[in-house]
Amino acid sequence: RATMKSLRFLSAEAFVSNAEFARKSLSAVAHNLFPLLFKASYLLEQGEVIHDLVENWPLVDFNMGKLLGATVDYQEDLSHRTCSVCLESCLTGLRDYVLNNFSPYMKRLKVVDLTGIKDVEVQFCECKKTMGRWARTQLLSKLCLELVVYLQQAQCNPGTFEISIDVLIDLFVTERNYEVVVEALLKKCSCPLKICCVAFRSDNLTLQKFFYIIKLADPSLLRKLEIVHNVRLEMEHLEILLNSIHFPLLMSLTLPARTFNVQRFTATDERMLTNIGEKMGEMTQLTELCMSFSILTGRIQKLLSPLKTPLKMLDVSNCSLNHADMAYLANSFHANHLEALDLSGHDIPELYPSTFFKLLSHSSSVLRSLTLEDCNIQDTHVNMLILGLSPCQKLHEFKFVGNPLSSQALKHLFTFLCELPMLKNVEFPVPRDCYPIGITYPIDDASVCRFDHQKYESVAEELNLILLQANREDVKASTPLFGSYDAAVQETNNELGAYLIKSFKETLEKFTTSFNKMS
């Protein structure tokens, strides 16, 4: 559907479409038109015009989310376009804003906010080349270092040294860009562009490097911390982290797989867990917690009861929760506030059906996202599931890949899902009857693609027809066989793969050495 453009926006498009003319004429443009021209340039991917607009930015703040979001002149939100041409022009324009020698008193810019940029799977920009979060981290760090070097060597206007601009960004650090980010953070004091880390994600880093950079990134400003792949953070390291660093504004915490393993708990570990719970309780802003692929059997209450603020997002997928854990969640004050819940990897119908539905009932008035992948939901459970989901009128997203459901059961479920007014995204499993007879669940990675693809396509068509006939073309239905799209993993998958091969090789070498010693 084409989005309406105001006459002002159409005029802005016409103005910036001739890059040479637009660049020459910028000095005559009224200051309040710069945001309009910026969005028009971004839509048309006019990199040179974007660069010059930012280089001559006349306003106090530059907020990417607001500039590219829905506006009166053009309702379409462009913040999900991570176009490489546009973003590089934007960041180099920011560097040149500092170096541009027009009178310092005209330089009013104080805050640049890059946090509103959203990384998504499908790009609509013409160039089709994206600049993800990792690349934005890398480029901004390099530009800051270039500025420091230039200011040290060149004869600059004295006013240049008085420029101080806070650049709010979501940093993404791996082994490959670690050195340049560390150097940029170390030289923050002497750079006019001050990197202010609002969210921090770390993959493929040693613990020593992670602890060093997280302190450099100024934890007092941090709102979101994601420690995800190949950072070997275990419970004792988490305790050290929370004891040694204060995160007063932290709202969201993601911990790597296997941070907790209660199967080998000692009395010391129990004390450690209590301390971690208390430390998280001191984070008065914490409302999102992801602890997937840890073993937390019987310990959810110990971890979550000290929290003073109710959680809005909880991911405890594949955490081996027992009935006591589910009962705590269902009766806790978090239940009424949960907007996103992931309980994947738990046999819900077998272990705690009534307690789960109690939890669902308590969160139904606010729940927006529910993920129940590999939960052994079968045809016989569909009616009960429909009953549980019926009050969830605000549900935007429902993911239930990996459950042994037949084509018929899926059609029945889809007919119901059409009635949820806010629903936008459904991730459903390959029907059980598309797999060979005797397949066991959860299906292993080697067998997950061995199904009748023609039959699946036919069923998927029928499911989409159900949506179409109910006038629900707004609902996207798909089957991501290997999990939902993760922009960060997509951007760094080569590094991630290399790291995994290296780890496997090291493990193999250790095993061979041990075996040789035994021989």
Structural notes for this entry:
The chain has 519 residues and is an alpha/beta fold. It has a domain at 7-131. The protein is built from 20 helices and 13 strands. The protein has helices at residues 7-17, 19-25, 34-43, 47-55, 64-68, 84-99, 133-153, 178-186, 207-216, 235-244, 267-281, 300-304, 323-331, 348-351, 353-363, 382-389, 407-417, 453-469, 487-491, 493-518; strands at residues 61-63, 111-113, 165-173, 193-202, 224-227, 252-254, 288-290, 313-315, 340-342, 369-371, 397-399, 425-427, 476-478. It has a 13-stranded parallel beta sheet. Helix 11 (267-281) links the parallel strand 6 (252-254) and strand 7. Helix 3 (34-43) packs antiparallel against helix 4 (47-55) and helix 7 packs across helix 8. It starts with 6 loop residues before the first helix and ends with a helix. Keywords: Leucine-rich repeat, Repeat. Belongs to the PRAME family. LRRC14 subfamily. This is Leucine-rich repeat-containing protein 14B. It comes from Cephalopterus ornatus (Amazonian umbrellabird).
Widest β-sheet, arrangement of strands: 1-2-3-4-5-6-7-8-9-10-11-12-13
Major sheet: 13 strands, parallel
Instruction: Give the radius of gyration.
Output: 26 Å
Structural class: alpha/beta
Helix tally equals 20
| Terminal-residue CA separation | 70 Å
Task: Provide the residue-averaged pLDDT.
Answer: 93
Percentage beta strand: 5-15%
The parts where pLDDT drops under 50 for at least 5 residues are none
Annotation, overall tally of beta strands: 13
Rough shape? globular
Family: Belongs to the PRAME family. LRRC14 subfamily.
Protein name: Leucine-rich repeat-containing protein 14B
Organism: Cephalopterus ornatus (Amazonian umbrellabird)
Keywords: Leucine-rich repeat, Repeat
